[in-house]
């Protein structure tokens, strides 16, 4: 008869003892003690990676550690311990991952998820950038002054020549349409702020 298998090797020495089986809410996950030990203060490290574990847990008939948590959000937790990156699919709520990260006491992951949530909230509150456009009519000699006095967030967009409409003395004065734009402040809820004195001057010139 062939000799039976020897005792399993201890953690860090290779073999079966390196691997850990987790039963999270009825779903099995298999990983290594090295992965779970990436965060020494975490619930998972204290449960599975210490010779004298600080935490006690029942095991099921397969020897898997029983953890009464939602398995749906455990995937991002385990993957973060594996490669240090936060990956959340569209089907998962970031708040759910945050809840699990806090339960498993993975401080660095808690910070990452909170930053992600904060960035998403900022993008949502800002919404798409809207612009207000105005078309101002001016003569050639007024063009330089008009561009130089532009302020209050107005930006030059386009200059369109419309020929010579006015005649002063013996010289024709070239006429232009100057297109300018400004970002619409979202805090105004779509109401355009009353222009300042410089903006009013531009507006008056464009209304001639």
TrEMBL record:
> Which InterPro entries does the record match to this protein?
BTB/POZ_dom, SKP1/BTB/POZ_sf, T1-type_BTB
Query: Looking at the record's lineage, which domain of life comes first?
Result: Eukaryota
Keywords associated with the record: Ion channel, Ion transport, Transport
Q: Which GO terms describe its biological process?
A: monoatomic ion transmembrane transport; proteasome-mediated ubiquitin-dependent protein catabolic process; protein homooligomerization
The terms describing its cellular component in GO are:
Cul3-RING ubiquitin ligase complex; cytoplasm
Gene Ontology molecular function, alphabetical:
cullin family protein binding
In this chain the BTB domain maps to 18-121
UniProt protein name: Potassium channel tetramerisation domain containing 2
């Amino acid at each position: 008869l062939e000799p039976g298998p020897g005792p399993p090797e201890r953690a860090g020495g290779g073999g079966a003892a390196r691997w850990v089986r987790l039963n999270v809410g009825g779903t099995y996950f298999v990983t290594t003690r090295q992965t779970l030990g990436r965060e020494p203060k975490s619930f998972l490290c204290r449960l599975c990676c210490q010779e004298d574990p600080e935490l006690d847990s029942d095991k099921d008939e397969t020897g898997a550690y029983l953890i009464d948590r939602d398995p749906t959000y455990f995937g991002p937790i385990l993957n973060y311990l594996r490669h240090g990156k936060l990956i959340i699919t569209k089907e998962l709520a970031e708040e759910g991952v945050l809840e699990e990260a806090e339960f498993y006491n993975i401080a660095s992951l808690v910070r990452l998820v909170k930053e992600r949530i904060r960035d998403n909230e900022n993008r949502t509150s800002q919404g798409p950038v809207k612009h207000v456009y105005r078309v101002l009519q001016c003569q050639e000699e007024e063009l330089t002054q008009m561009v130089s006095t532009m302020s209050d967030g107005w930006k030059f967009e386009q200059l369109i020549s419309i020929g010579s409409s006015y005649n002063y003395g013996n010289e024709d004065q070239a006429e232009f349409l100057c297109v300018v734009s400004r970002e619409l402040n979202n805090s105004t809820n779509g109401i355009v702020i009353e222009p300042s004195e410089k903006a009013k001057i531009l507006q008056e010139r464009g209304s001639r």
